[in-house]
Specification:
Keywords: Coiled coil, Signal. The chain is built from four helices and 14 strands. By secondary structure, it is an alpha+beta fold. The protein folds into three domains: about 110 residues, Elongation Factor Tu (Ef-tu), domain 3; about 60 residues, OB fold (Dihydrolipoamide Acetyltransferase, E2P), CATH 2.40.50; about 130 residues, Orthogonal Bundle (Helix Hairpins), CATH 1.10.287.
Length: about 350
Amino acid sequence: MTKKKAVLSAVALVATAGAAYGAWHWWSYSRFIESTDNAYIGADITVVAPKVTGYITNMAVTDNQQVKAGTVLFEIDASDYRAKVAQAAAAVQARRAAIDVIDRQIASQHAAIAEADASLRSTRADQQRSDEDLKRYRALAASNYVSNQKLEIAQTDQRKSRAAVDRAEAARTLEQNQTGVLQANRAQAMAQIAQAEADLAAAKLDLDNTVVRAAVDGVIGNRTGQTGQYVKPGTQIMVIVPTDELYVVANFKETQLNGMKAGQSATLHVDAFPDLAIKGRIDSFAPASGAKFSLLPPDNATGNFTKIVQRVPVKLMLDKAEGNPPLVPGMSVVVDIDKRGTAAMQTAAR
């Protein structure tokens, strides 16, 4: 009996110690941990699609290939786009030649205006001379030193000189107006040059877009394009998965969010690697519950209402470490959040 009592006492002591340790562990650590298995690895996957229409002439990458930003992914037949660039370049040259012609016309017009000014000055000098002659002939006719016929001739010459001045002034005005027309034509030609240069830039851009390059570092996936395939702008050819920039989206219950904040530490267990604990931290919280972003969000104002605990997506960033396994988007994860904060998590870990 004594031995049996000793065994029972030892068992009771162990049970008490275990319960005490469990209570202490819950009080100091477990009660601050929020967990969910509704979590998945995510990534900002880049969809690759062409901007121009044509046939794929070269598929430069294969499935699951690692690429760097700027790597050529595929090429589209560029013959039509080269022809358009040549056509647009010829149009620019033609517009510039038209400007040269107009500039020469304007220069000639300035010479014509100078000539009209000289002619006007000459006719005005003739008018002044005829005015002076008329005055002299009138004075002489009043004293009967010249005949009336001479006076009439002087009057006729004076009227002719005035008419010549009027014609010279009209010719000068016409030449000046023609210069204004040429200036307007030049402004129009300059606008046409700008349009032609814009067309050339667009044609060159389309030509450049026949070579599709990777926008980010990552791994090629879901490649559907093949050499010889006819594609249009927006046609998905492949995707690039940035495997070095992965994160985790954990859908916590709304009742678990109390006390959570950005920067808190997290321990992540990936189902594919159950024995490995990956460190991370809370990055941000979704602005609404997952139900609000669904295709058909619930409307509690209609029908019978049943209260359902909602889940809110929480984004967590992974701490980069040498020992991290090759993770891919879509893997299932179990997330443990320590709501005491990063410092407390590090202290508990030590």
